[in-house]
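haha ok so turns out i had the wrong file open the whole time. this is the CORRECT one, sorry everyone. sequence first:
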Amino acid sequence: MSDTFYDRSVTSTGITVLSERIDTVRSVAIGIWAAVGSRDEAPEEAGMSHFIEHMMFKGTPTRTAAEISETFDRMGAELNAFTGKEYTCYYSRVLDTNVGPAIEALSDMVSHSLMADDACESEREVVLEEISRHEDTPDDKVHDLFASALWGDHPVGRPVLGRRETVGGFGNAASKDYVSRHYRTGDVVVVASGHMEHEAIVALVEENLRLPEGPRHERPHVTPSVESRLQVVTKDTEQAHICWGVAGLHAQHPDRFALGVMDAILGGGMSSRLFQEIREKRGLAYAVFSYHSLFLDTGAYTVYAGTRPENTEQVVRLIQAEVERILDSGVTEDELHRAKESIKGSMVLGLESTSNRMVRLGKSEITHGTILTMDELVDRIEAVDRDWVARVAVDMLTQPRVLAIVGPHDIGAVTHLLG
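then structure:
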């Protein structure tokens, strides 16, 4: 693959447009990305980025909410959106013959959402229900609890859904003010992947996506101070849900490729050490895995397990034992080879989806990341050796450790597990 696998332009108003042409498909995945997420909210705005994502589907001067859905249904298209800590994306996947109508309709949603008071009122209730569902889903809640315990007051520690107290007060004026500050042309990137022409995408964006002109809003880079911390939510659940972890790497850190390999070996799949030790050998958990999160100025390395409450201590001890083993003895050549092949396989299989390709381009561009070719990515993974993994393990896994638990435990009964 050449180093020019995608095209990039900037419209006259300052919107960045990226596209990747794929001649072997008949679909196009289109995403309108905004550089705004939960980390950009003031405390009294907690959850606003996610709320705005909902409101963009609730009607414009030319389309009701129902007509927006009908527009995409008539095209046989997918339509959805998602909000993260550092971005929001509105996307559709359509036949190549419907690219124009899809971009026009997506642009109408993002440019001209009415944010009407009655729609705000009804959608507030929807989001409050979503928050309640999240609170009632302990294997979801524990990850937010862990983020809060790890990062404290740092912006990435905030839950994407926000808080009931703030969401309950969102209305037309606050919503429009937030959009005017965070949906300027410099904050927005449009990405298309599939069977289309780049120049046609640029022209459609130029014609349809009307936003206030202005540069991207600045985000301060603040590396959080992490301390060893235990956080417990006592809840009458059948399982105890556990997140154990440490601070990780930022999104452009050169060690992120070695971290990915270490993650795969420790808990990234069914052959990983944690899965084999905790689930296969001892039967202590149905779900046990690790993952790493990369953000502008920080990151996290997290291990999750769900187990019966009486097994909580044993599972936490086993997680810590596997961490100590990788610190003491490193990884084997066989583990290294298997992890690298697994990562490369996942990346290549992901290229068969136009949606995955669109997300890869959009996420990298909106976060000021480097967009690497597949050959470059493979080369970075291939360059990882045992010494590099060992160094990254020491740099990360010897940091202050954080433990979050949701389950039928009092904090006093599990305090000793943090040691």
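The chain has a mean pLDDT of 96.
again sry for the mixup
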